[in-house]
Write a structure and sequence with these properties.
It is built from four helices and eight strands. By secondary structure, it is of the alpha+beta class.
């Protein structure tokens, strides 16, 4: 006579066989193609993949001119701007003024803090720099130094030799190192006494 455990095991095997045979999975004697309606949703359309390429920001070093020795001469300092380093970005870097470390070392700017670049355009070797009206609020020797800072910074860009100033979109006369007013383009030669 069989043990009760053997009978239970046999009953479980028979129940499993009955359940498997009743699950309704059809069998075919040979393979045949499936219709689109028999294929589960989404398997015919591969999932679209989106790739994101992260391009690291590339910067380039540029030179801007600040003021050293209490305004006695200009000081060339390096700044980083995004590649390729447009003239507008270079002028904006100048208008930012000295860093905290530079200021602690006595480097300063003669350009009024509220000065903004409105536009810049080049025609051959001449760059027309349009600054906000606050640039012209500086007076006397400081204005000469401020003009020299812009001229040296802009003419550090290859191909540019002279700067024509506008304030608020209007042509502006600027003082040179000799104190004379220039209504046309000015160059580094006009500020040679302030050279670094």
């Amino acid at each position: 006579m069989r043990s009760p455990r053997a009978l239970i095991a046999a009953a479980v095997l028979i129940a499993s066989a009955v359940a498997l045979s009743a699950c309704g999975i059809p069998t075919d004697s040979s393979p045949h193609p499936l219709t689109k309606s028999d294929i589960p949703f989404g398997l015919l359309k591969p999932a679209s993949t989106t790739t994101t390429t992260i391009v690291p920001a590339v910067s380039v070093p540029v030179t801007v001119y600040l003021v050293a020795n209490g305004g006695a001469h200009l000081d060339a300092v390096s700044r980083k701007v995004s590649f390729p380093g447009t003239l507008a970005e270079i002028i904006d870097a100048l208008l930012t003024g000295p860093t905290n470390a530079e200021a602690a070392a006595g480097v300063q700017t003669a350009i009024a803090a509220q000065t903004k670049l409105l536009s810049v355009a080049t025609m051959g070797p001449i760059a027309t720099v349009n600054l906000s009206d606050s640039f012209g609020k500086t007076v006397g020797p400081e204005l000469i130094t401020a003009v020299a800072q812009v001229v040296y910074t802009v003419t550090a860009v290859p191909g540019i030799a002279e700067v024509l100033f506008e304030l608020g979109g209007q042509p502006a006369s600027v003082p040179t190192a000799t104190g004379t007013l220039a209504s046309g383009p000015v160059s580094r030669a006009d500020f040679a006494s302030l050279a670094p």
